[in-house]
Specification:
Shape: globular
Structural class: alpha+beta
Number of strands: 37
Bound molecules: 2-acetamido-2-deoxy-beta-D-glucopyranose
CATH topology of the domain at 547-682: Immunoglobulin-like
Strand order of the largest sheet: 28-29-33-36-35-34-37-32-31-30
Largest sheet: 10 strands, mixed
Helix content: 10-25%
Distance between the termini: 86 Å
Oligomer: single chain
Radius of gyration: 35 Å
Strand content: 25-35%
Length: 683
């Protein structure tokens, strides 16, 4: 810090300054703010914004004062984090002062400007004026510098006139060098306990590259047991990926998969818990320095197979091994695995996402035909990274992605390390609200997804369906790949276009089929295309007339916390005033269902009567779930109340009320356990 004698700006300079300012304002208007971090997104800026004048934190420790002929030195202490700085004031020729503040023990030497001054300034002899525990004052010619201890302040006088003050408003801040926070998980068990206490689970990433490092047990055991994939010359193949030089376990060898799956045991996988699950990435395998970013086609696997013959199924064996490992680790608990590479059969073990997409409207759009193609090929558990992995989405794209992605089976927000932070809480209230609404809609429909996956596991019917799957004789739907059906009852037209004010929705099923907007129950007649107005809050989604949709409408922070929550049944009547649907429920995580620990329920509405009946009579699950509400869409007119009958409840009267121009009728608090068969009659 240097002090120079003041200069007076003349008019010309002032004019130049204003012109410059004007120029800055003009160019500011043209800048896209979205390209820059906000203060909240920069830890440096956040720290500095927190500094307030009423909270002085620096004090000059005058007990440590050292006085010489031409300098004053003392410790300057940051009382917030106890970092000690070195304060020095030097008296220079021409009656000027020089103040330098630096760390006593910086992590590394700080860069000091050279060349800006024409050589080192000449020092001059100071005169001590005053010194006590709170103040020290020195004189130089006609000038004076007074240093105050607490709060730290330096005042410069010309004669008796105060001309400059260091830290006059306690806003002085010295950013000491700090260790970049290295994210280390020092207490993995406690961390996971803390996480699972909120109903969430930890998924950790495991890739197939084994680091070639002496002392790494896995590498050494793989070498000594001959478990690695070989080159064509019979040497252990070595590729390059995240860990650096890596080799790859030969998963075509049953001894290797047995060995590898056992490494998921808690005493091998230190820091793991029973609720920790796995994301298998790069399992094609991806090899940075290999041909086509994988291993050479002439690498040799167990059984003598060249990699060219087995490449496509490598990912299958990798996730199967993980699946076996998790099941051995935590018996009778369904493993969760997310995989990038997969093959026919992988649907038994893992969910898949569509790989490294980008924050681009076309990538949002294509996630639908991609997942729909996989679904009709037998792999339903599919989704795309919300927001796009590479690059930064603008808020419109981000919101649309949350809204659209909620209707694919796998729903995950993800981003590349180098992209701008995009956690929902970083955005304005209205953006947060839209994202929250998308998440709530997603969670409300979890019973639908769960039921569909149960049925998928029994019948192989895809969970999400292109229109052609459900309406094969309707030639209008042949090339519609941007709309989808969730099961057969929910029709969704995600908004995948920027600044859309309308979107075209095709309603299949013929003139007898009516679809109801899930927000306002507005009806749309089948086999026609309608231009539907949309706002940023609107994603066109419809229930099929004739379907019964089980939902859990109480918002929670995690699916696991919804286990015992009550249902709302949305009974959407068709032209004949009837509807039907199913519900599957169980404990949500064990294989108890293989021993018939589940409920599979059929709902039917006909002749003003809703009945529930257990489909698999020999299956039982003592659920705490109950029926909170029934919403009849397209209800019969003139209903005054309702009546419920069940074994446990006997016969009870229920209140009903019409809502929204009589487009729906709400039956309040049936209160019946889902385990019980029941009959609700509208009266
Ligand atoms: C777990 O939570 C407690 C209580 O909030 C906290 O003190 C502790 O630091 C947390 N542990 C870890 C490893 O995050």
């Amino acid at each position: 810090m240097f002090f120079f004698s003041g200069t007076v700006a003349n008019m010309a300079n002032l004019m130049r300054f204003f012109i410059l300012l004007l120029h800055l304002i003009v160019s500011t208007i043209a800048v896209d703010k979205g390209n820059f971090k906000t203060c909240e997104q920069s830890s440096f800026c956040r720290r500095l914004r927190k500094i307030k004048p009423d909270n002085p934190k620096y004090f000059l420790d005058l007990d440590s004062l050292q006085l010489s002929d031409n300098s004053v030195e003392a410790e300057l202490v940051n009382t917030d984090d106890n970092v000690k700085l070195k304060f020095s004031l030097t008296t220079l020729a021409d009656d000027t002062f020089r103040v330098i503040i630096d760390e006593y023990k910086p992590l590394h030497a700080r860069y000091r400007v050279e060349g800006a001054l024409n050589g080192e300034p000449q020092v001059a002899k100071l005169e001590l004026l005053e010194r006590d525990r709170d103040v020290v004052s020195v004189k130089l010619g006609n000038n004076k510098a007074t240093m105050t201890s607490d709060p730290f302040k330096v005042e410069f006088y010309q004669g008796d006139t105060l001309v400059a003050v260091v830290n006059s408003r306690n806003l002085f801040e010295f950013e000491h060098l700090r260790v970049k926070p290295v994210i280390k998980f020092k207490h993995p068990l406690e961390m996971q306990q803390n996480l699972t206490a909120t109903g969430r689970k930890l998924i950790v990433i495991i890739d197939p590259h084994i680091k070639r490092e002496g002392g790494y047990f896995l590498h050494e055991e793989a070498l000594s047991n001959d478990y690695y994939i070989k080159t064509k010359d019979g040497n252990v193949y070595e590729g390059w990926c995240w860990p650096g030089a890596s080799s790859y376990l030969d998963l075509f060898n049953p001894a290797v998969t047995e060995y590898y799956s056992k490494l998921y045991a808690h005493d091998k996988f230190i820091g793991s818990t029973d609720t920790m699950y796995i994301w298998n990435d790069m399992n094609e395998p991806s090899v940075f320095n290999g041909p086509e970013v994988t291993m050479p086609k002439d690498c040799v696997h167990y059984g003598g197979w060249e990699h060219r013959h087995v490449h496509n199924i490598h990912g299958y064996y990798y996730t199967k091994t993980t699946f076996d490992g998790l099941l051995q680790r935590t018996p009778n608990t369904r493993p969760f695995i997310l995989t990038r590479s997969f093959f026919s059969g992988s649907q038994r073990h893992a969910a898949v996402w569509t790989g490294d997409n980008a924050a681009d409207w076309s990538h949002l759009a294509i996630s639908f035909p991609m997942c729909l193609s996989m679904a009709v090929s037998g792999f339903s558990f599919c989704g795309a990274d919300i927001g796009g992995f590479f690059h930064s989405p603008d808020t419109e794209l981000l919101q649309r992605w949350y809204q659209a992605g909620a209707w694919l089976p796998f729903y995950r927000a993800h981003a590349h390390l180098d992209t701008k932070r995009r956690e929902p809480y970083l955005f304005d209230q209205d953006v947060q609200t839209r994202i929250r609404n998308a998440l709530r809609l997603r969670y409300a429909h979890l019973p639908v997804w769960y039921t569909l996956f149960w049925e998928h596991s029994k019948t192989a019917e895809p969970v999400i369906r292109p229109l052609i799957y459900q309406y094969p004789s309707d030639s209008n739907v042949l090339d519609i790949d941007y709309q989808l059906l969730v099961g057969s009852s929910i029709l969704v037209r995600p908004v995948v276009e920027s600044r859309a004010s309308t979107v075209n929705v095709y309603f299949p099923g013929g003139a007898q089929q009516i679809w109801y907007d899930i927000e306002d129950w507005r009806p749309y007649i089948g086999s026609r295309s309608v231009s539907v107005p949309v706002t940023m809050d609107k994603v066109p989604a419809y229930y099929r007339g004739g379907s019964i949709i089980p939902r859990k409408d109480r918002p929670r922070r995690a699916a696991s916390l919804m286990l015992d929550d009550p249902y709302t049944l949305y009974v959407v009547l068709d032209a004949e005033n009837s509807a039907s649907g199913t519900l599957y429920t169980d404990d949500g995580y064990t294989y108890g269902y293989k021993n018939k620990d589940y409920l599979y329920i059929q709902f039917k509405f006909k002749d003003n009567t809703l009945t529930s009946s257990i489909i698999d009579k020999d299956a039982q699950y003592p659920t705490r779930e109950w029926l909170e509400r029934v919403v009849i869409v397209n209800p019969p007119k003139g209903i005054k109340h309702a009546e419920i009958k069940s074994k446990g409840l006997g016969t009870l009267q229920l209140q009903t009320s019409y809502t929204g121009e009589e487009r729906s009728l709400v039956v309040r608090k049936p209160g019946v356990s889902m385990q019980e068969e029941f009959i609700i009659t509208l009266l």
